[in-house]
Amino acid sequence: MMVEQIQKFIEEKRDEGKIINSIIRDDVFSILEKECTVLYYYLDDAIEGFHISKPVRGEQKQFVFINTQKVLQEQVWTAGHELGHVWKVDQYVKNNCANCSEDIETIIGKFTAELLMPKENFRAEIQTKLTEYQYKGTVMSQEMMIELVTYLMNFFAVPEKAIIRRFSELGYIKREHIEVYLDSFRAGTDYYKKIITEKQYTRLDKTREVYSMGNIHEDILQLEKKELVKSKYVKHVREMFHIDDNPKLQEQLQFEG
């Protein structure tokens, strides 16, 4: 019942936001940015991201932080997870699902999986690969498992733990085997990296040292132009977000069209 309500919620949001692609991948960032202020910042820290809601000038505003030190697939998952908080999917589920006893993080986790790895698409991609492998049995080699997980990670742009937990949710493996699969996958890190290179899986393990928040570049220019704050504060913000105070490539060029 809970999953059905989450799926219904996602369909309503897809219609409302005119989200056409069934596989969202890194489009989740632009969806999130339409709903709240997103701070992208590179921190050498274990934290992946978080969501906060706080009053600003008498109005409740939503903010999400995403650590760009993490690889792209982890950032995508974090963005999807925090989007669930921004959209308050847990409240929707509890209002529409009688006797729902799941905690907020469990509901948000289910939402993120349904949003980024729709059930039918996930099953279809698994079947395609199993057919390709000519897999007929019930026991899979470690090598084949790593190949399958890596393919799905690249296709959906999510981390390995999300793929393996989805296996459990959809009945491919038992829940108690999740950690076994995770340990087996991580033990094959060298093979995983080899697959990424050979298959040219361009969505995986990408990192970008990004420092950004909304229209901060334009906001800083306006602050300077109108002299709304002291220059030392503007300088401090520029340093925080690694913004050059002498922007290049600003020349205007004539082009007849």
Briefly summarize what is shown.
By secondary structure, the chain is of the alpha+beta class. 55% of the residues lie in helices and 9% in strands.
Which residue ranges are poorly predicted, with pLDDT under 50 across at least 5 consecutive positions? none
SSE succession:
HHEEEHHHHHHHHEHH
Q: What is the end-to-end distance?
A: 56 Å
Mass-distribution shape: globular
Structural Rg: 22 Å
Number of helices: 12
Order of strands, widest sheet: 2-3-1-4
Major sheet: 4 strands, mixed
Task: Explain this structure.
- The protein has 257 residues and is of the alpha+beta class.
- The chain has 12 helices and 4 strands, in the order ααβββααααααααβαα.
- The protein has helices at 2-17, 28-35, 72-86, 89-96, 104-116, 119-133, 142-156, 160-169, 178-187, 189-199, 216-226, 231-240; strands at residues 37-41, 49-56, 59-67, 212-213.
- A hairpin with a 2-residue loop joins strand 2 (49-56) and strand 3 (59-67).
- Helix 3 (72-86) crosses helix 5 (104-116), helix 7 packs across helix 8 and helix 7 (142-156) packs across helix 10 (189-199).
